[in-house]
Amino acid sequence: MLFVRAPEVRRSHHGHLPVVSIVVGRVVEPMPNALYRVELDTGHRIVAHVAPAARLRFLRVIPGDRVRVEVSPLDPGRGRITKKEQ
Q: What is the pTM for the complete model shown?
């Protein structure tokens, strides 16, 4: 029987979490369902949501805010907002 390996996803040192990229960007516009369009410093635009841990800290995001975003390694067009930059 022949097994085909799935593509490797880089894992963190814990072994079960995918490695994410942390980038800084600016919130361009709010979208429905608590999503935000964020323009990264590289010029790319992604759709991001506020991370649950940040939501517990009552993080409010408005257009023009500079935010730190974790970009998903599986879908580079999506991410999560982890904190506001000063």
A: 0.75
DSSP conformation class of 63: T
The alpha helices in 17-85, defined as continuous H runs, are: 52-56
pLDDT tens sequence across 19-37: 778 899 999 999 999 999 9
Tell me the HSE value of 78 on the side-chain side, using a 13 A CA sphere: 7
- Residues 26, 38 contacting (CB under 8 angstroms): yes
Domain coordinates in residue numbering, the chain: 21-84
Q: Are strands 45-50 and 78-84 parallel, antiparallel or unpaired?
A: parallel
Cα separation, 2 vs 41, whole angstroms: 45
Find tokens 């506020």 and name the residue: 50
Q: By the 8 A CB rule, do 39 and 69 touch? A: no
How would CATH label the architecture of 21-84?
A: Beta Barrel (2.40)
Neighbours of 47 (CB within 10 A): 13
